[in-house]
Amino acid sequence: MILGGTSEARALAQRVAIDGVNALYSYAGRTKSPISLPIPTRIGGFGGADGLATYLQETGITHVIDATHPYAETISRNAIAAAKATGVPLLALTRPAWTPVEGDEWINAPDMDSAVAALAIEPQRVFLAIGRQEVARFSVHPQHFYLLRVVDEPKTAPPLPDHAIVVARGPFDEATDRALLEEHRISLVVTKNAGGTGARAKIDAARALGLPVLVIDRPRLPGRDEVTSVDQVMDWVAHT
Ligand code: 3Y8
Ligand code: NAP
After folding, report:
1. Dist. CA 16 → ligand 1 center (Å)
2. pLDDT, position 97
3. Which domain holds residue 159?
4. What pLDDT sits at residue 145?
5. Are residues 14 and 55 in the same domain?
6. Can you list the alpha helix ranges (DSSP code H) found in 4-72?
7. Which of 62, 153, 185, 202 is deepest in the core (most CB within 10 A)?
8. Percent of the chain as helix, strand, coil, to the nearest 5
9. Running along the chain, 240 residues long, what does each successive block of 10 average in pLDDT?
């Protein structure tokens, strides 16, 4: 079973379909219409670590690949616990964290709380590119204009007095993100250190425009086997 929801997970799904591996893909069901994939797909939670362990046993899953996003901390912790409880082998398909290059102006925040605290500054025009789930925490700093980008049309407006919303699903490209930053006269970009290619366009666009980027470090996870390529996953499945 592939715990998915990322570009890399989709690439893995395409590879297992081509290789004819018997696989199942799992979405949390966060978005209204997730991208369809060439392998059987389930949508929705399992009911915590215990629910996941029961699911693995009842469906006879022989290998779990955690290809979820580095900020999907709970599911990754649950996968480690369920693998331990059931003895089903677990491998994580992760992507290396982004690192600053020449011309980058990064401010590092160890976690979301410190990212919120870092905005206790004079009014800015902030591209808060962290999705939807954590946006409300920034309502303690109403002095800023916030540009939000979400996957689905929000049901209710976020508690931010001065904001604009863009509804878009990545992966994104630099030209689009650069135009977005210029159109909204953005002065600061806030992003998770997601890694991978699907979310990095805003960082490249910020560099091109000489804008600072507040980069939120990833949550820390317990130890588990990790690889960063589909080939390594296929090799592991074949030999485990
Ligand atoms: C539901 C599956 C693919 C996967 C595409 C990647 C790239 C584009 C960039 C910005 C940042 C953000 C957000 C983002 C990106 C990829 C990847 C990635 C960031 C989909 C998807 C699901 C989700 C869930 C969604 C979260 C939200 C986060 C938007 C599908 C499109 C901000 C992460 O409204 C909600 O509840 C949405 C929640 C978790 C973070 C948040 O807290 O709001 N992703 N994103 C998955 C599921 O149900 O299991 O709908 O098809 C997948 C992708 N989003 O196949 O190419 O691999 O990272 N996703 C972040 O990086 O901070 C957008 O706008 O610049
Ligand atoms: P999370 O906080 O780590 O998990 C919360 C709960 O959602 C889990 O306990 C589990 O529910 C369910 N869940 C999460 N991922 C699942 C999956 N792939 N299949 C089945 N159930 C899943 O998760 P999240 O951060 O909200 O991320 C949700 C999904 O969006 C994941 O697929 C992730 O890869 C994708 N995504 C997240 C981000 C992000 O910034 N967090 C970015 C891009 C994509 P139960 O406890 O009921 O089992």
Report:
1. 22
2. 96
3. 106-216
4. 98
5. yes
6. 7-19, 48-59
7. 202
8. 35, 20, 50
9. 97 98 98 97 98 98 98 98 98 96 97 97 97 96 98 95 96 96 98 94 97 97 96 97
Does residue 174 have its Cβ closer than 6 Å to ligand 2?
no
Whether 131 is in the pocket of ligand 2, judged by its Cβ within 6 Å, is yes
Establish whether residue 170 lines the binding site of ligand 2, counting it when its CB lies within 6 angstroms of any ligand atom. no
Cis peptide before 219 (omega within 30 of 0): no
pTM score, whole prediction? 0.97
Beta bridge partners of 167: 150
Pocket test for ligand 1, best of 127, 151, 214 (most atoms within 8 A of CB): 151
Query: What residues pair up with 175 in beta bridges, in sequence order?
Result: none
For ligand 1, atom 9, the nearest C-alpha belongs to: 199
| Tens-digit pLDDT profile for residues 19-48 | 999 999 999 999 999 999 999 999 999 999
The residues pairing with 146 across neighbouring beta strands, listed in sequence order, are 126, 163
C-alpha–C-alpha distance, residues 53 and 46, integer Å: 9
Residues 89 and 127 in one domain: no
81 in a structural domain = yes
Which helix (H) or strand (E) is 109 found in, with range?
A: strand 106-109
Ligand 1 atom with the smallest distance to the CA of 8 is 57
Residue 216 forms beta bridges with which residues? 109, 192
62 and 148 both lie in a single domain: no
pLDDT in tens, 87-102: 999 999 999 999 999 9
